[in-house]
Task: inverse folding
C-alpha cells in the first residue's frame, strides 16, 4: 500500500506562485504514474497534471497548461507541482494520487486509474 503525503499549499495572491510536493512511501511499484487532482469549492474533483515514472511523460489539463509544471524525483519517489500565475479559479484542495500502472497518455487523466491518494492540501488564491 502506497502512502502519499502532500505539502506546500497555502494562501497566495492572484499572479503568485506555489510549489506543491508529494512524498510517496510503501514501494515504487505503486507509483508508476503519479498525478495531481483538485477539488474546487462546491465542485467535483478534476484532473490537473500527471507524470509517468518510466519516461517522465507529462500530461496537463487545459486550464493549467503553460502555468503549471509537474516533475518527479525518482530517487526520492517525490512528485512536485510548480504552479505559476495562480488565479482565483485555482482555489481548491489539491490531491496527490498514484497508480501502479504506467498509463498511456489517454488514461493519465482518468481518476479511476489511480489506487492511492493523499489527504490533500489547500490552495487558496485571493487578494
Result:
Amino acid at each position: 500500500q502506497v502512502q502519499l503525503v502532500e505539502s506546500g499549499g497555502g494562501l497566495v495572491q492572484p499572479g503568485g506562485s506555489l510549489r506543491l510536493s508529494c512524498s510517496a512511501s510503501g514501494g515504487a511499484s505503486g507509483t508508476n504514474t503519479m498525478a495531481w487532482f483538485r477539488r474546487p469549492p462546491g465542485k467535483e474533483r478534476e484532473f490537473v497534471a500527471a507524470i509517468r515514472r518510466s519516461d517522465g511523460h507529462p500530461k496537463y489539463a487545459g486550464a493549467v497548461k503553460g502555468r503549471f509544471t509537474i516533475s518527479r524525483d525518482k530517487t526520492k519517489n517525490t512528485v512536485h507541482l510548480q504552479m505559476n500565475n495562480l488565479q482565483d479559479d485555482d482555489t481548491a484542495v489539491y490531491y496527490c494520487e498514484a497508480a501502479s500502472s504506467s498509463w498511456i497518455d489517454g488514461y493519465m487523466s482518468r481518476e479511476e486509474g489511480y489506487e492511492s491518494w493523499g489527504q490533500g492540501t489547500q490552495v487558496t488564491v485571493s487578494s
